[in-house]
Amino acid sequence: MENRFSRLKNQMETLFQTGVKQINGRSWFSAGNGYLYLTLPASNYQAANRSCAAIGARLAVAAPRNMNITRMIRNQFGITSQYTWIGLNDIEQENTWVWENGERLLSSDANWSSGEPTNWNGQVVEDCVMLYHSGKWNDASCDHMHIPLCEVSVFDT
User: Fold this and answer.
1) Global pTM value
2) Under CATH, what is the fold of the domain 23-156?
3) Fewest Cβ atoms nearer than 10 Å: which of 3, 8, 69, 116?
4) Degrees, nearest 5: CA angle 64-68-73
5) 24 in helix, strand or coil?
6) Contacts of 38 (CB under 8 A, 6+ apart)
């Protein structure tokens, strides 16, 4: 049974890693119920939002909630040291984390890095969330420069 499960898991991971779709002249990677695209250059959170919107997407809200997909992101995009913006913030109200699609973060979806979220040393307001290369999340200053992880739903394409 475990061997069969392992084979199925490997097949699913391969499917995640090989699905590519052309959308508006760009190669997007299939991931769950959507497609992902890393835009360049690195930018602050607000500019990252605009970069994604300019290509008909939004900062990722579904992909970061799934560990298999975050593993695919790390492998497919070769993320080993960069951090990427995802569509989660508490800009409106401190410690009320809201996805860019308006949904509140459920504790069951949270994938915070150990000790997060925090405001660094209580001195820096950290209202925006980035994805570490490990797949874990960290709250950071929205002014930091990171690569936007853009997402479109399969229902949008």
Assistant:
1) 0.81
2) Mannose-Binding Protein A; Chain A (3.10.100)
3) 3
4) 60
5) coil
6) 77, 84, 147, 148, 149, 150
- Strand 20-23 to 98-99 pairing: unpaired
CA dihedral 14, 131, 28, 33 (to 10 degrees): 70
Say if residue 141's pLDDT is above 90. Answer: yes
Using an 8 Å Cβ cutoff, are 99 and 87 in contact? Answer: yes
d(CA 137, CA 139): 7
Residue-level pLDDT at 13: 53
CB of 12 within 8 A of CB of 68? yes
Report the chain's mean pLDDT, rounded to a whole number: 83
Q: Where are the domains of the chain?
A: 23-156
Q: Using the structure block, give the residue that is written with the tokens 């391969």.
A: 14
pLDDT digits (tens, 9 = 90+) for 42-59: 999 999 999 999 999 999
